[in-house]
Amino acid sequence: MPASGRQRKWIIGIDLGGSHFSVGLVSTSGALQSVQRHRVAVADGPAAIIDQMREVIFAQLDSQGLTRTDVLAVGIGSPGPFDRKAGVIIESYNLQWFDVPLVKMLRERVGMDVVLDGDAISATYGEWWAGVGRGSRHMVGLTLGTGVGGGLIINGAVYYGCSDLAGHFGHMIIEANGRVCSCGNQGCLEAYASASAIVGRALEKPKELRRSQAWKEIAGESHRLTAKVLYQWARRGDGFARALFEETGRYLGTGLAGIIHTVNPEIIVVGGAVAKAGNLLLTPARQEAGRRAFKSAFRRTRIVRASLAENAGVIGAAGLAQCHFGNQRPGAM
Amino acid sequence: MPASGRQRKWIIGIDLGGSHFSVGLVSTSGALQSVQRHRVAVADGPAAIIDQMREVIFAQLDSQGLTRTDVLAVGIGSPGPFDRKAGVIIESYNLQWFDVPLVKMLRERVGMDVVLDGDAISATYGEWWAGVGRGSRHMVGLTLGTGVGGGLIINGAVYYGCSDLAGHFGHMIIEANGRVCSCGNQGCLEAYASASAIVGRALEKPKELRRSQAWKEIAGESHRLTAKVLYQWARRGDGFARALFEETGRYLGTGLAGIIHTVNPEIIVVGGAVAKAGNLLLTPARQEAGRRAFKSAFRRTRIVRASLAENAGVIGAAGLAQCHFGNQRPGAM
Predict the structure, then answer these.
(1) Are the Cβ atoms of A262 and B263 closer than 8 angstroms?
(2) B297 and A172: CB-CB below 8 Å?
(3) B259 touches chain A (CB under 8 A)
(4) How confident is the model at residue A315 (pLDDT cuts 50, 70, 90)?
(5) Mean pLDDT to the nearest integer, A161-184
(6) Element of type H or E holding A214
(7) What's the mean pLDDT in A212-230?
(8) Distance from C-alpha of B281 to C-alpha of B256, rounded to nearest angstrom
(9) Given a cut of 50, is residue A201 above it in pLDDT?
């Protein structure tokens, strides 16, 4: 039975990265039915890539016996900078996209409503809607990946700020004269707690690094050093790698204390690839935040690992599309 | 003509400090009609002080030919910690008050509705309602005094967070291993930009301080050194004092960059006694924030000096009472 407007029960979520995109079919209650990941052929240019998105969307609908009329809307989570309201990717050096009207181009290809939002905001919203943040009123989401992204839910709705730049917790300054960040500023949380910062900090201690097991694994080729190699060795008990993750956790906890004092959220959800280190990172982070923050605020803030792993972005992008087009959830502010 | 419930056009605002309280008569549109400041006789205990508040309230009403029935409600802005919902001052070492049910005690004495809120939140709300923040949607207020207080307006309403501790921007950490703060934590903005921190930082440079004009003014008695003496000499061109305020401005700007990246407000209003230093402080603060923050966010955020001076707290406390009892303004979240 083809669904009428009121019966559209499915939403498409797309998580757009620098080298891959993922397309998921999500129910209006936040359940992920299916998800597919595709490598982007950058050289083919935006039109070809957006054609590919269309193909993946319809292939997924077909496989579930669904059609376009079953779908409420499509939500895309993308790295910045982009113009959310215009639906335009302003620049992506990874994709080599500049001023690409992604929303318009995809809408024309699929004949569905499309909305664009941030990747970290989508992941945050996903965890709030269908993950570990469910039921909370005020939530902060952090995505520790190549950079440190963030999102902010206030009163059960995404808080965007006056120019769509709220929630960039990765660029809170925790060391006024500290490490240089990818944004050019000094001492940002991102310059300590992102995957690239963890590798950078390891390389800044060459003597200790050379004595670690991680160094042996990469046969002394520093370009092969990754945060993943380091946390795997931390997990296996390598002293250098363990100390590095403990220190990372303390920096993260310093940022968390600032978040607790300013946003006073019920829950802070930590996701992204670096969060796979789990308690190697979160235990020292909680200790440091507890040491630094007002006890009365710290006690009320749960600091937890994200629960939807790499699907948070797809689910959240779908949820934000439902916010935007479905009027079934609190609208965004 | 005695006013009926619907015609109550006046609100009482009280700004409670550690040594003084101020009582103001404020119109429901935010105009301050009169204000009186009184020294608190701490030794007399809470009941006597609250009796005095009642006397000042009725003296002010009398002087304007008004009675209790002209008053919508009383709002009190107080330093923490307090229980906003219960209306109880939990502890004030300055006042020697512990678990004082201020709201109940004052309500019984004046026969009017009373509500309690934070001093920095009241000052922030005052600037938003009737001061330089008027008409903005998302605003941050900072009060640079003995400490650094803050308040957060989101979507035109005070944002309290999950346990009434949001907006403590003074306890964002800007130097992970920096100066010890009054809260026991290290490297808080308050440990650099409060009046006491400015004095402390001056005393940490004894050689330069001794060569400054400020040192001559206080005849080398370091306990007489105040932020006021220092900014007056900064204004007169004393090199040491100027450099100190420039450095203070840079620390403040570091905190402002963090606020811009996380809250992305339209306007940040800087008040409190230290803000009297004006552009000696705000020019380097704006420069530092501009150097550190995303250009697109910085361009959209005005950083301005508070406009209501020491009356912001009284006016804001009255405004919050109107929020609470009058339903004439957006309610608080």
Answers:
(1) yes
(2) no
(3) yes
(4) very high
(5) 96
(6) helix A213-217
(7) 95
(8) 13
(9) yes
Decide: A304 and A269 in contact? Cβ < 8 Å.
Answer: yes
If contacts are CB pairs under 8 Å, which of residues 272-311 in chain B contact chain A? Answer: 291-294, 296-297, 300-301
Between chains, do B137 and A263 touch, taking CB under 8 Å as contact?
Answer: no
pLDDT number for residue A329:
47
Q: Which residues of chain B have pLDDT under 70?
A: 1-6, 327-333
Tokens 């909305």, located at residue: A115
Which tokens belong to A331?
Answer: 């609208």
pLDDT tens by residue, B246-287: 999 999 999 999 999 999 999 999 999 999 999 999 999 999
Mutate to test the interface with B, among A172, A190, A300 (most CBs of B within 10 A): A172
For chain A, the domains span 5-124+311-326, 135-307
What is chain B's mean pLDDT, rounded?
94
CA distances to A218, A264, B59, B166 from A154, rounded to whole Å, are 44, 10, 43, 12
Provide ipTM, 2 decimals.
0.93
Please give the single-letter amino acid code of residue B167.
G
CA A86 from chain centre, in angstroms, equals 22
- Closest partner residue to B163 (CB to CB) among A259, A292, A300 is A300
Residue B135, judged by CB atoms within 10 A of its CB (0-12, 13-18, 19+), counts as exposed
Asked if the domains at A5-124+311-326 and A135-307 fall in one CATH topology, the answer is yes
Nearest to B34 by CA among B322, B253, B315, B246: B315
The secondary structure of A28-56 as a DSSP string is TTS-EEEEEEEE--GGGHHHHHHHHHHHH
Instruction: Tell the CATH topology of A135-307.
Output: Nucleotidyltransferase; domain 5 (3.30.420)
Q: Topology of domain A5-124+311-326, per CATH?
A: Nucleotidyltransferase; domain 5 (3.30.420)
Task: Answer whether B3's CB lies under 8 Å from B310's CB.
Answer: no
User: String of b and e for A234-259 (b: at least 16 CB within 10 Å)?
Assistant: beeebebbbebbbebbbbbbbbbbbb
How sure is the predictor about A227, in pLDDT bands with cuts at 50, 70 and 90? very high
Coarse DSSP helix, strand, coil percentages of chain B, rounded to the nearest 5 percent? 45, 25, 30
Residues contacting A24, CB < 8 A, separation 6+: A12, A13, A14, A15, A32, A33, A34, A35, A36, A311, A314, A315, A318
Determine the pLDDT at residue A327.
Answer: 60
Using only C-alpha atoms, chain A has a radius of gyration, in whole angstroms, of 20
Stretch A179-194: mean pLDDT? 96
Does residue B189 contact residue B259 with C-beta atoms inside 8 Å? Answer: no
Counting Cα atoms < 13 Å in the Cβ hemisphere of B79 gives 19
Architecture of the structural domain at B136-306: 2-Layer Sandwich (3.30)
Do B190 and B183 touch, CB atoms closer than 8 A? yes
Is this prediction's pTM over 0.90? yes
Average pLDDT of the residues in A4-18? 83
